[in-house]
Amino acid sequence: MLSSTWNFIKRHKRKFIFAGVFVGGVYLLGKYAQRKIQEIQEREAAEYIAQARRQFHFESNQRTCNMTVLSMLPTLREAIIHHLNSESLTALLKTKPANKLEIWEDLKIISFTRSIVAVYSTCMLVVLLRVQLNIIGGYLYLDNSVTKNGTTPLAPPDVQQQYLSSIQHLLGEGLIELITVVKKAVQEVLGPVSLKQSLSLQELEQQLTQIRQLVEEGCSSSKRKRLSWYMMPDEENTLASQACGLTENDVTTIKLLNETRDMLESPDFTTVLHTCLSRGFIRFLDNMSEFFRPPQGDSNPFSTPDRLSHVSLPLAKIIPIINGQIHSICSEIPSHFVQDLLLIDQVKEFAANVYETFSTPQELQK
What we know:
Elements: H1 2-11, H2 13-83, H3 87-93, H4 100-145, H5 157-164, H6 168-171, H7 173-190, E1 198-200, H8 201-217, H9 235-240, H10 248-264, H11 267-289, E2 312-314, H12 315-324, H13 326-329, H14 336-342, H15 345-358
Helix pairs in contact: 2-4, 3-4, 4-7, 4-10, 4-11, 4-12, 4-15, 5-10, 7-8, 11-14
């Protein structure tokens, strides 16, 4: 029995060797595949956790953006009111001065200027902070997730403070220049319009459109500036003011400012800002429409209250309404105006793209 078994094995020796090698190979291949599958699963799990962490950090950063915008609106509002003080004119009118008509003309220009400037500057504040805080947010994510090996932080606290303080340009020199440009446009469009002339909401919208064209395409009496200039000064001015004695933090801050300037001058940013401005002026007119409603009981079929009502008001009556709009536009209490801007899809998508760019390690090597 053993002899016959042994003879069988000898006759089929090659087959047994082949089978043994095959089974062993399959076993080793299975072990290798199992190990590779485990590595892939572990890598996918790590990537999923990293992506979830980055998504959580991004969403937290957007909430910070929203809160920062709301916290800065009172400062913006006070700055606009300081430079365009219509309250002193209204107080003067109560004294019944001899030059009453002249004061009314000044009040017309200042009231329209400050509400239009409020729309522009609030939109600019929303998109500028979205850019700045997402650049900083991206670098902070890398500092916390990637560069934990003792290397210099990409965005140390001093740099963050120095970089974010550049927002003061929009609240200072940029705002003053914006006021100057808008005021010239308002004078050119509304200067000839009589205080007694009645305007419908549609006609008011046409006046605002003309003013916007002059501001964004250039007044006849001034050279047009890019809208990005009002948010951030020219590179030469920034570097000139820090030309000597630059510390390492200064160099990092200038790098951040240059990266921000590149973002502000990009076509995507221009598209997002103009989307915000369009939404802002629509909301502004929606707020005004509340005062253009027809009298109760009016059965005129053309007096149905809508955004472009056929109801007309004398310009003298529109001025006080326009004058008070700044308190709705620059309200730190979430108003429809600010909420509309914060919820625009293009703003969210642009913010996500900025964060993605600056939270990706590969970008640092380019």
